[in-house]
Design brief:
This protein has 6 helices and no strands. The protein is mostly helical. Helix 3 runs antiparallel to helix 4 and helix 4 packs across helix 6. The chain is elongated, with a radius of gyration of 21 Å. The relative contact order is 0.13. The mean pLDDT is 93.
């Protein structure tokens, strides 16, 4: 329900008589009534592209940082210290937002526009990328990067510290035990 969230966020700060949407349920119903059920899925293509690219960039970067910083290779039996995993995870957490900035901007713009108000500004993902680039310049495709970098890398640092420790525990407890049988 990203579309509902973004449409409600657009209204923040408006007086109650200026609000088009009265809440999440009213927003969803209005979108369905004015734009059809598919209106709830506006921006789905760039969302999928963003998420896929983000995961690919993050996992690739995490493995690369583990090798470069700590000489840790996948499947070598070593477990990084939590602080090492946090550093690699934090750095890897920056790769996703940097690589996916354009998809995130396009996703938000497609979700924010209402099809019920006549002509739409962006007809789809590629049209939005071309239009933003032509009208606002290349860097506009990375608008909002700083807030994303303030939010995502710290969370990735914590997530990777935990994930590496759990994986290490599992490998020591179960994989190496069965390898010695």
């Amino acid at each position: 329900m990203q579309v509902v969230k973004i449409r409600l966020q657009q209204q923040r700060g408006l007086s109650s008589e200026l609000l088009k949407y009265k809440g999440p349920v009213h927003c969803a119903r209005t979108i369905i009534h004015e734009e059809g059920v598919l209106g709830l899925w506006a921006g789905a293509a760039p969302t999928v592209m963003r998420n896929g690219t983000n995961q690919a960039a993050m996992f690739t970067a995490k493995n690369a940082f583990d090798v470069v910083l700590w000489k840790k290779h996948e499947g070598d039996g070593r477990v990084l210290q939590p602080w090492q995993s946090m550093i690699s995870g934090f750095l890897a957490g920056t790769a996703g937002p940097v690589c996916t900035g354009p998809f995130d901007v396009v996703k938000t713009r497609l979700m924010a526009q209402s099809r019920s108000e006549g002509e739409v500004r962006y007809r789809g993902m590629f049209h939005a990328i071309r239009t933003i680039f032509a009208e606002e310049g290349l860097l506009a495709l990375w608008k909002g990067l700083l807030p994303r970098l303030m939010r995502i890398p710290p969370g990735q640092a914590i997530m990777w510290a935990v994930a590496d420790q759990v994986t290490g525990f599992y490998e020591r407890r179960y994989l190496h035990k069965t390898a010695n049988l």
